[in-house]
Structure formats: C-alpha cells, structure tokens
C-alpha cells in the first residue's frame, strides 16, 4: 500500500516539525517574540550527536541526551548574553536581534564543525520493519515515539512544576505575573532552555536519515515555523497538529505529484492559512 508508506513517512517528518514548532511557541509564550535562532538549535542537535557518537565513539542514545543538554545550554547562553542585555523591549527589534544571533551561531557552527556534509548513525539497526502493510525505518519510529514522550514531558512540566506554572502565567498575563512576583528573567531563561532542548532533540532524531551540515536546520526550522503558524502560533496543541498536517501533506505530495514540490508545499500552506484563517487552525 503506497499510501500507507507515505503516511508513515509523513508522520515521522511531522513529528520533527511539531518539535521545532513547540520550540517557537514556548519562546513566543514567554517573551512574545519569534525566535529565529530555533533553526540553529536543530543544527546544533545534529552536531552534538555527531561529536558524541562519531567523534567520541560513545553510544548513540547518550549522544541524543547530550544533544538536548548541550543545545539547552547554548540556548541559555543566547538568552543571557545576547537578548537580556538588549536595551529595548520592542518586540520587532528583538525579533531582528534573533535573526542576527542566528547568523552568528551559524558562523560558529561553521568554525567548529566545518562545512562538509557528515553522516550520523541511527539510534538502532537500520533494517526496516513491516507495519500495516508498509515498510518503516526504525529511526522513523523512534522519531514518533520520542516526540510523543517529549510532548508528554512538556505537558507534565507546564502543569505539574512551579517553573512550568510560572511560564504559563507569564504567557497568559505578563503584567499580572510581574505584580505577584514571578521572576521574568528566570522564566525567559527557562523558556529558551526548553526550546533549545526541543530543537536539539529534533536535530538529533532527523539527521540520521538526512545529511548533516551546518545549514541543515534552516529549511527544517522554517518548516517548523510554518507548522506553528498553521496550527496557531503560540498554541501547543496547534504546533503538534500543524506539524503532523504539514508532514503528511508533504509526503503525499512527494509520492503522488513530485518530490520537487515537497519543500514548497509548506509555504503554500502557510500562505493559504494566513489568507483564510490568520489565527491558525487552533489559534485564538
């Protein structure tokens, strides 16, 4: 069943887009800005995995954990050293600042890891398994399972921890949160750390089935941004729904039309949603 093969591929890609979209939504909820450094967090996740699993020769699962932790630390450094000292609260200025920081981070990636394309090993053996009449790579299943676990962990974090509740309060009403003494600086730092971990996990999961390079996160990140808008920017359920819709649409378009249209489809959907329902499918 060809259509089932395309659905599995779309679910795998959609899970990655959802993770990236969640990173965008987390920072937007805490700071009210679009964080374009998120695209480089995806690249960093793949690079940290390469350093741990290939250069150091350590187990790949350890490399995935290192990707999340390392990218989260870089994200915290970005917020603490680049965004927090900014002498403006203008959201548009801060958005352009994230664009500049993204260029700097990408340059640092070039300097540390070079410009050559690299191969990253998958989490487990690469022999496909047969599910529901289609053959699926184990890495695709890992992408879906670990994304689901990450979403459940985020739900627990935002509903069951004091810091998560503080982040929800800031996202809901920043002025009221400040009045009751919620530390905005700590919330923003945590938001960048969680967004960085999401981007790092996405990069570590997707790079074993793609080629790793210093620019690999740019297109993936932009698709994650499109998925966030498709679902409703700032809506966590919308980010997941938007990512899955985008991933499945891409796979079906590549299978039944042409793979040449696959990358353009995300931005066609983006334009259609902005024209028909600017708030997104689940946005308010």
Protein described:
The protein has one domain (2-124, 139-276): ABC transporter involved in vitamin B12 uptake, BtuC, CATH 1.10.3470. The chain has 284 residues and is an all-alpha fold. The termini are far apart. It has helices at residues 2-31, 38-55, 60-83, 91-113, 138-160, 162-172, 174-179, 184-206, 216-231, 236-256, 262-276, and strands at 129-131, 134-136. The longest helix is centred in the N-terminal third of the chain and has 30 residues, at 2-31.
Q: What is shown here, in short?
A:
The chain is mainly α and 284 residues long.
Percent helix: over 70%
Q: What portion of residues belong to β-strands?
A: under 5%
Number of domains: 1
CATH architecture: Orthogonal Bundle
Number of helices: 11
Largest β sheet strand count, sense and barrel closure: 2 strands, antiparallel
Global Rg: 18 Å
Poorly predicted regions: none
Q: What topology, given as strand order, has the largest sheet? A: 1-2
Q: What series of H and E elements makes up the topology?
A: HHHHEEHHHHHHH
**Average pLDDT, to the nearest integer?**
85
According to CATH, what is the class? Mainly Alpha
Structural class: mainly alpha
What do we call the CATH topology? ABC transporter involved in vitamin B12 uptake, BtuC
Shape: globular
Overall strand count: 2
Distance from N terminus to C terminus (CA atoms, Å) equals 38 Å
